[in-house]
């Protein structure tokens, strides 16, 4: 049973239609990537799932709960999703542990349970020993892992990651990729990942949806996408010309 179901998602900004009917069914535990060039509508799709944008049409449900559709619109905090953006925006004046405490306080989780969950989330990203530090005392890669821990700390049903590695330099990006793959293998949490980097998509994903101008042009496993691109635009984007 698919965990995330997106049907005929349409989004307009004024006169401009940026999503022209996106469909996707993402299985429980799947690592699903939206891959495509800048401006094709990846972030808009993710933001609609997160509840940060209101779709102009279509439906979104997760685990059978309708988020959007039939007159329903759940607020972001009602969706139980974890999200990490390109700019991970930790609070600079708060320690790592305090950064993780905030989303738990918002959910009215008490002190001792908070401490337990913070320790658990930081252990998942191998940063338990840095809980008392401030963000500027961490490397870019470590800060990114804190952002990931913060997204995981309240046990979301789905993780939404929007170009989370793009602010890292090439070497750190490589490490972060290996590390993300290991975390995914450990947790098995359903993940919707956005990137314009085809290598990243091919390395990490169970399935990839190639997007172009507000549509999904092909959905398949990395091997399917790479070996048998369905259209010239997919071939061009994943670097092969058949
Ligand atoms: P991607 O993440 O694939 O780079 P986006 O989803 O951010 O693409 O954007 C898709 C298109 O929608 C782009 O042309 C972008 O300029 C436009 N767009 C995104 N957000 C807004 C907005 N709030 N208002 C108007 N246009 C927007
Ligand atoms: Mg984007």
TrEMBL record:
<keyword id="KW-0813">Transport</keyword>
<dbReference type="GO" id="GO:0005524">
    <property type="term" value="F:ATP binding"/>
</dbReference>
<feature type="domain" description="ABC transporter">
    <location>
        <begin position="4"/>
        <end position="238"/>
    </location>
</feature>
<protein>
    <submittedName>
        <fullName>ABC transporter ATP-binding protein</fullName>
    </submittedName>
</protein>
<keyword id="KW-0547">Nucleotide-binding</keyword>
<keyword id="KW-0067">ATP-binding</keyword>
